[in-house]
Please model this.
Amino acid sequence: MKIGELAKRAGFSAHTLRYYERIGLLPYADRDQSGQRDYDASILSWVEFLGRLKATGMPIREMLAYAVLRERGAATEPERRELLEQHRERVRSKLAELTDCLLVLDTKIAGYAGTTMRMKEYDAELPERRQKPAPARRAVARWG
Model:
């Protein structure tokens, strides 16, 4: 498949895929007679996996480390697992942080949604609450 089709199917730009190829995240693609990249369909699952890693915030240097281990074969599975487990913990931590932020936003939004009701309650009680403000006190200089 051509780079445009791969980009469309994987959700990346062709520019990003070329960059990934240049830095070693993607294997070099075969070229057709006109010199255009011609990817094998099997590359799609790898590119989609890279998309997941990117979406979860894995730095490119770690993606590269994973890709190097992957290229070295099945003997590196324990190392790849460890790398993914460490990343999973960072993702879980970020998810918990975002969940806390979402709760604050939901609470604030609910507060705004209740503003009309709170104002009606406040207006109903206003005559009872009205008091004249206390007079301002003069500052007295102290000489000691």
